[in-house]
Amino acid sequence: MTQEIQKPHRTIRSYVLRQGRLTKGQQRAFDLHWAQLGLEYQPQQLDLAGLFGNTNPVFLEIGFGNGESLAEMARRSPGKNFIGIEVHTPGVGHLLMKLEEYGCQNVRVCRHDAVEVLQHMIPDASLAGVFLFFPDPWHKKRHHKRRIVQARFVELLARKIRPGGFFHAATDWQNYAEHMLEVLQGQAQLFRNTSPSGDFVARPEHRPLTKFEERGLRLGHGVWDLVFERLPTGTS
Ligand SMILES: C[S@@+](CC[C@H](N)C(=O)[O-])C[C@H]1O[C@@H](n2cnc3c(N)ncnc32)[C@H](O)[C@@H]1O
């Protein structure tokens, strides 16, 4: 009789950790600013007012890449607090450099899996908004299970976003845009689509246009924005 080998359970993650060396500037930014702006992962709920030293509304960006959009949003809105989460270390370094350049004190940066940070560190109903800009699209069908936007993820967001707060996603991959729309529409008791046409919205002013996106638009590529509002609990 052949013995069945029990494989250890592995969580499906939405990213593959890329290697990447820090530039001198990024290393310097880590050395200078991590103690003040860095947020170490620990499975313990944060005191957000204590973290920022004020009670301003808190917005969270998942997978900020090199942080250009996040730094720009923070620069434009000093009366708002931002938490940025990214697993790619050079991207984190780049954001720290940008925050130094803009003199922003209203951002905290976490280098960890955003799903675990949301699950274990963010208090329920504490966020005014969550941003997910150009998440990894996982083009191949067999990889679609790696896409971060899934029903369980939307339920997690619903727990963390306060009523009246929003979830804003953007993608340049039409199939992922349609997938997100379908998943979010399947949670109509938790989120209301703010699109008057019931699908996508024009880029909201708060999402900065990146160079990459500008180039894509010039080449005629599409971008789809979705903005869903968190309904009061129990609304259907
Ligand atoms: C395609 S890039 C887009 C980056 C950026 N938002 C932009 O618009 O340029 C997606 C980013 O999400 C990050 N990412 C994916 N899953 C993540 C997760 N679970 N937690 C933290 N970061 C994640 C990846 O490391 C990658 O940098």
Mean pLDDT: 94
Q: Please outline the major beta sheet.
A: 8 strands, mixed
What gap, in angstroms, lies between the N and C termini? 53 Å
What spatial form do the alpha-carbon principal axes imply?
A: globular
Give the number of helices: 8
The Cα radius of gyration reads 18 Å
Helix proportion range: 25-40%
Q: Quaternary state, please?
A: single chain
Please tell me about this protein's structure.
With 236 residues, the chain is an alpha/beta fold. 34% of the residues lie in helices and 19% in strands. The chain is built from eight helices and eight strands. The protein has an eight-stranded mixed sheet, sandwiched between helices. Strand 2 (58-62), helix 3 and strand 3 form a beta-alpha-beta unit. Helix 1 (24-37) packs across helix 4 and helix 3 runs parallel beside helix 4. The longest helix has 14 residues, at 24-37. The N and C termini lie far apart (53 Å). The structure holds S-adenosylmethionine. S-adenosylmethionine (SAM) binds at residues 14-15, 62-65, 85-88, 91, 113-115, 133-136, 148.
Keywords:
single chain; 236 residues; alpha/beta; 34% helix; binds S-adenosylmethionine
Summed up, what is this model?
With about 240 residues, the protein is an alpha/beta fold. Helix content is about 35%, strand content about 20%. The protein has eight helices and eight strands.
Map the helices and strands.
Elements: H1 24-37, E1 38-39, H2 48-52, E2 58-62, H3 68-76, E3 81-85, H4 89-102, E4 107-110, H5 114-121, E5 127-133, H6 151-160, E6 161-171, H7 174-185, E7 191-193, H8 211-218, E8 224-230
Parallel strand pairs: 1-4, 2-3, 2-5, 3-4, 5-6
Antiparallel strand pairs: 6-8, 7-8
Helix pairs in contact: 1-4, 3-4
The chain binds S-adenosylmethionine.
Residues 14-15, 62-65, 85-88, 91, 113-115, 133-136, 148 line the site of S-adenosylmethionine.
